[in-house]
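I hope you will forgive my troubling you with a question about protein structure. Could you please explain, in whatever detail you think fit, how the structure tokens follow from the sequence? Thank you for your consideration; the sequence and its tokens are set out here.
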Amino acid sequence: MAIYTAGGNTDHMILNAKSSLFTNTFSRSSNNSDFADINGFNVEMTATHSSAKILLMVELSIEGNGGQRLGFRIRAHNNSTNADEYNDFRAPSAGSRTRSLASLQPGGGNQLRHLSMNVMWTPGNTNSYTYTVQCAAEGSQPQYVNRSQTDSDSHSVFRACSSITAMEVRA
């Protein structure tokens, strides 16, 4: 697949693509806004060229207690060095604010929110990386993935799925 730019130039070809559909539900409570993996919500990618960029796209169905803020980031785990690399996937430091890639304020009850995150990253090597979505909540509040807070058993209450996609793009 090619990404066409003005004038029909195909400078940015998709060299490799991996995607994972997360259909399970997940819930956890934060401890002082700590980030933790959404277990099983990840994708692994090995770039074929060290100069390539990795385009990460996340579509997340999420909910929590009404009025409590939630934060999200992507953890890039270098499977070759066993190290985590976050710096390109969260906001810069600003006082005591928690650094994240995205955030939202849930409505609670049987609502379900949708969140999209997109990042272009250059790892600069051909190591294997596992990209995992992490979440945190204000204080010790709960987070729910692919289900609502109350998750009532009713035909009018929905469950959803989430996805993460990694694409290697020729630089």
